[in-house]
Amino acid sequence: MSALWSLLRRDLLLALRRPSEVLTVVFFFVVVAALFPLAVGPERATLRMLAPGVLWVGALLASLLALNRLFEADHRDGTLEQMLLSGTPLTLLVVAKIAAHWVLCGLPLVLLVPLLGVLFDLSGDALGVLALSLLIGTPVLSCIGAIGAALTLGLRGGGVLLALLVLPLFVPVLVFGAGAVEALAAGLGSGAHLSILMALLLLSGLFSPWACAQALRIALE
Amino acid sequence: MRRIAWTHYAAPQTFYGLAGVCWKPLALLALALALAGMWVGFMVAPTDAQQGEGYRIIFVHVPVSWMSMIIYLAMAFWGVVCLVFRARMAGMLSQALAPTGALFAFLSLWTGALWGKPMWGAWWVWDARLTSELILFFLYIGFIALTSAIQDPRRADRAGALVAIVGAVNVPIIYFSVKWWNTLHQGASVSLTRSPSMAQTMLWGMLLMALACWVYALAMVLYRTRSLILQRERHADWVAQLPELSPGVRP
Amino acid sequence: MQPHTGLETRDLACERGGKTLFEGLNLSVLPGQSLHLQGDNGSGKTSLLRLLCGLALPLAGQVLWAGQPTTQDREGFLRDMLYLGHALALKEGLSALENLHFAAALSGQAWVPGAALQALHQMGLRGREHLPLQVLSQGQMRRVALARLGLSPARLWLLDEPFVALDTAACGVLQELMQNHVARGGMVVFTSHQAVHWASGDHRSHRLGRA
Questions:
Q1: Torsion over CA: B225, B228, B233, B237 (sign)
Q2: CB-based contact (8 Å) between C3 and chain B?
Q3: In sequence order, what are the beta bridge partners of C157?
Q4: Neighbours of chain C (3+ CB pairs under 8 A)
Q5: Exposed, middle or buried, A49 (CB in 10 Å: 0-12/13-18/19+)?
């Protein structure tokens, strides 16, 4: 257990000392959100309708960018091998890696969304639901994406390959995440969508670390 | 009752021989079944009351859709065998299945579009089943891309196995979410297979075509696996002694 | 208590890229012995080390630790074993002391900062314990990696090319570490292109690859 906290602290410390990687992800999200109105025109009604989808896709793509680097650095400097050989269950260590990844790349997106939602003229309620859906949904993206990151470890063209593998699996999260806000706008209430997102979070939280650990063993053989 | 020695056929050398004997007759059978099925579908089955002649595309669309899903499940099954039992053949079978499955998924999308145009006036509608089929197609492409990108065959087998398993587990979730998404946005969903009642001949036609696709897939898998075996075992003695390779020329 | 039978391989076979590197390998390293693996490049020295520590699974055969296959009591074996590969397993963004702290936490060892500082001083890194590793030279980083050896309670050391990039003084310190470890009943299996001259103790060598 202390190994888990140790790994989590280590990753957070490393990111603190070299924040450029985290900032890249955040900046990408902001850019995507800012470019869309330029592409579709400034009409407020259109923007309000597009906002949940645009912001969700932006968050998804930003997460994808960061997933590439989840295991890469550790693989290159040999610390990943040591993790496999440490005697601590690899599943636990993977949980720590995914948690660190989410805190560094998922949580900032959730915190930024209220600000960016203003660009799209979203109402307070809608902003709240959007932020909540991202809060529940981005950890799921991290969990599922981690499996892809582990499978594509060290491969050339890894980034594109990772996207190809993982995007189909992201679809349910996207559907229910963006759908929650749209359901609210349609007057149907977002409860059902958010509950399903929670269920997805529980499922992926339980199974992804194990699958990811298997993928790491396969990649390092 | 004669017990089949599965482990005997799990060795590449014996599988190579068996597959060599089987695949050509299977391919011919597939052709015969396909011709029979198409004859039933295009000649014998009656004109549909609501959809006219254009509906006949379902004799291709439905069987290939079924097969694209069944093949993915087969890939996931062999994936489990590969990971749990570390069987070399299982990995090769998975990889041999993928291109055929991808082809069926692709055909399903195209026939779906070809049906859609005369029926609803659009080449593509975001129907729940078509969208799920599109995502399934991406899953196939992802599998093929990953296994091609990994040089080490054993790592490729095992990585592919994991992808197939994770994908198979996710397919119901994806289908459910797309269905939900579709009903929320479009109201009544248009189903390509929910025809009110199926005439007997229509069912027979589809069954024959489905069987044809299945036998074709079997033939292709056996053929492709033989190629994979030759690639992987090229340093083995038994490969050098094969009659189809010219004497004195090492593979 | 039965005497520890150490590390053993039975009929070990390894393949890489479709080619069989070696097969039918039978090795034995008893407590108090060291084994120097030699062979040309590509003969499978690193692959063998990876098989021994369990990162890779063999084509055939078994690796035994204290008479049991390492695949059985995996956690027990891992806690008794220390592997240092080509890559140093150090984070450049952390300091030497932080790296050692993390390595200890990862393997569930107790952390004694004083002992860690002493190990670093012994490797000639006095004054550099708190600097981020990226400002150290390659040789200094290697010494930080080797400082782990002094701190680890593991009985079996698997070292891949440990003498690379070390100057004469550091080589001497490393050899002394290995010698003392073996004298205390530990085991060392290492690869190196250089010949090693031992002062005392039971040191063997094995050559891989076609002669």
A1: positive
A2: no
A3: C82, C188
A4: A, B
A5: middle
**Residue among A81, A83, A93 with most chain C CBs within 10 A, to mutate:** A81
Lookup: tokens for B142: 């992802």
- Is C17 in Cβ contact with B152 (below 8 Å)? yes
Radius of gyration from C-alpha coordinates of chain A: 18
Domain boundaries, chain A: 2-220
Domain-embedded: residue C168? no
The residue in chain A having the minimum alpha-carbon distance to the alpha carbon of residue C58 is A221
Task: Give the residue numbers spanning the domain of C191.
Answer: 1-80+155-162+187-211
Number of Cβ atoms within 10 Å of the Cβ of C130: 10
* Backbone CA torsion sign across C134, C136, C137, C139: negative
For position C43, which CATH number holds? 3.40.50.300
Q: Token pair for residue A122? A: 């979203």
**What one-character-per-residue DSSP string does B41-52 give?**
IIIISPPBTTTB
In a domain, C15, yes or no: yes
Cβ-contact A190, A150 below 8 angstroms: no
C74 contact partners, CB below 8 Å, separation of at least 6 = C54
| SS3 per-residue string spanning A136-167 | HHHHHHHHHHHHHHHHCCCCCCHHHHHHHHHH
**How far apart are the CA of B248 and the nearest CA of chain C, in angstroms?**
21
Mean pLDDT of A173-185: 90
Nearest CA in chain C to B151: C17
Query: Residue A156's closest chain B neighbor by CA?
Result: B149
The DSSP symbol for C11 reads E
Separation CA A77–CA A13 (nearest Å): 17
C160: its two tokens: 């891949």
Residues A37-78 pLDDT 10s:
888 888 888 888 899 999 999 999 999 989 988 999 999 999
Query: pLDDT at residue A141 above 90?
Result: yes
Residues A136 and B110: beta-carbon distance below 8 Å = no
Chain B partners within 8 Å of C17 (Cβ): 151-152
Contacts 24+ apart (CB under 8 A), B28-33: B29/B215, B29/B219, B30/B212, B30/B213, B30/B215, B30/B216, B30/B218, B30/B219, B31/B212, B33/B208, B33/B209, B33/B211, B33/B212, B33/B215
Minimal Cα–Cα distance from A135 to chain B, Å? 19
Q: List pLDDT tens digits, range A188-216.
A: 888 889 999 999 999 999 999 999 999 99
Contact across the interface for C86 and A13, Cβ inside 8 Å: no
Q: What is the pLDDT of residue C44?
A: 84
User: Is the Cβ–Cβ distance between B142 and A168 less than 8 Å?
Assistant: yes
Residue in this structure with the two tokens 């569930």, named with its chain if needed: C108
Q: What is the DSSP string of B61-79?
A: HHHHHHHHHHHHHHHHHHH
CA distance B85 to chain C (A): 13
